[in-house]
Structures are given as structure tokens and as C-alpha cells.
Amino acid sequence: MSRLLYHQELADDVHAKQPAINEAISKAEHFQREYRDRLHPEQKDALQEKVDKLKADYDKLHNESDDQFKSDQARLDKLRREEEERVRSHVW
User: Fold this and answer.
1) Overall domain count for the chain
2) Residue 83 vs residues 5, 61, 80, 86: alpha-carbon distances, Å
3) Measured between alpha carbons, how far is 77 from 79 in angstroms, rounded to an integer?
4) Is there a contact between 64 and 10 (Cβ–Cβ < 8 Å)?
């Protein structure tokens, strides 16, 4: 059960960080628009790469944490059903 709780907490933490991630992305994109004419092409590219990496890394972490929690929950549910079935089969 502790593994399930760990993955649930991890998924909750990842979800809780979403507003901060979205804000960082929004600010970076605003900065790019605001200073587009003052940035060198290399700076624009570097900033865009970092924004894209942040988006991709967060999305990956978000999906993996959700998937792991759902997988653990499904395993726990299966074990509970198997245990209930085992108990029922021994009662009769």
C-alpha cells in the first residue's frame, strides 16, 4: 500500500506544480514576444529550446506519474478482488 501512496503523492505533487510550470512558460513566451527584436537569433533559439524542453519534460513526468499511479491502483484492485474471491471460495 505504501508504494501506491508514494505514487499518489508523486502524481499529486506533479499536478500541483502545473500552475507554476504554465506561468513560467507563459512568462518566457511573453518575454520572447516583447523582446523579439532585441534578441539575437541564437538567443531566440536557445530560449525556445528551453521552453520546449520544459513543456516536454513536464508532460512526460505528468503522464508517467499518472500512469504509474493508475497501474498501482489497478494491481491493488486486482489483488483485492482475488482475495475476496479466495475468501468466498473457502467460506462455502
Assistant:
1) 1
2) 20, 33, 5, 5
3) 5
4) no
Q: How much is the pTM?
A: 0.75
Q: What is the secondary structure of 49-71 as a DSSP string?
A: HHHHHHHHHHHHHHHHHHHHHHH
Q: Taking 90 as the threshold, does the pLDDT of residue 50 lie above it? A: yes
Residue 48: domain span: 2-91
Report helix, strand or coil for 87.
helix
**Per-residue pLDDT tens over the stretch 2-42:** 887 888 888 899 999 999 999 999 999 999 999 999 999 99
Instruction: Look up residue 41 and give its amino acid.
Output: P
